[in-house]
């Protein structure tokens, strides 16, 4: 088994492949086209000499550091990088002082790039304000967390916020293919099998840096890169899962049916398969939110709250931590009592509407707030429920043609049993039957 770097050790470099393949111009950047078109702030920053401040917000491996580096490289500005993980106020002030001296002595501007800027506390972020406000530097802050929660308002209000998206599969494929052929990368010295390329794309999960890290590790193992080599390099078993083919639909179907069948173990298993295969976590979260109303409904009204909270959490923190939030919601959904009464209710109502069974809105329920409504009899005779005992009063709510229609038929499962008893009594009282 021949390793690329065994046969070409003299060409090896200590720089990681992802660093070597960093784009040198905006036109070389793959993905984020919504930020790179003509007239966009990034283009204006590159094409003008005026300093500006930016926040780049997005998941790991979407190009935040790359964009900062490109801005510096293209505009011939000094590039100073600070990691908020290890730097303190002293480091920030030292970088700013050096940038001011450079600007005063030579007129050369500095790009001050702060990675993981959300890790700076308030005092550390305050230290950046004078440089941003006086434009001593072109400040670029990178964050994987929502800056509206993690960045102080004075700093955010003085900066442009740009949101980066995970790279699409075709974009990751292009990143990997370019690295295989480019002299700065592997220079065509490896053979990457098509199924191995597919596996790298799946494992990347929209993270370009991760795809290049796995590619570099695979090239260290063997110049003939197969799926097996990629699996060893990634130190995980390949998940046989085609996001565009049968496996995608089979796994998501099994996932939903396992939750519906109340098997939490099976549901978590299929969740893990999707996450490990690089399935979009937002797609998974949407399916859980739908399930919470479609298959649980009023049997456990809190299920929808948990599902929506999990979806928001995943959007807020991303993967890998977001998988915990997804698992939380999945287990809740699986163990919850089940009822499809909600989906049946809306289905029956929509069916009537589509068949033309609509009727007229009762006059006393019509809008009576605009001029002339009273003359039309709108709102006349409406009885305000809060004026009556128990907040309920008998009057017609459905159109006359649908007075006997029944849509919501609650089960006696879980919490819906309470609503079942209450609705039976309410309907009898309201309809006079």
Which second-level CATH architecture of the largest domain applies? 3-Layer(aba) Sandwich
Query: pLDDT under 50 segments (min length 5)?
Result: 1-13
How would a textbook summarize the main sheet? 5 strands, parallel
Instruction: Give me the CATH fold name of the largest domain.
Output: Rossmann fold
Instruction: State the end-to-end distance.
Output: 83 Å
**What portion of the residues fall into strands of 2 or more residues?**
5-15%
Give the overall form.
Answer: extended
What structural category do the secondary elements indicate? alpha/beta
Spatial arrangement of strands, main beta sheet: 2-3-4-1-5
Work out the radius of gyration.
Answer: 29 Å
**Counting H and I runs of at least 4 residues, what is the number of helices?**
21
Number of domains: 4
Number of strands: 7
Identify the CATH homologous superfamily of the largest domain: P-loop containing nucleotide triphosphate hydrolases
H and E string? HHHHEHEHEHHEHHEHEHHEHHHHHHHH
**Class of the largest domain, according to the CATH hierarchy?**
Alpha Beta
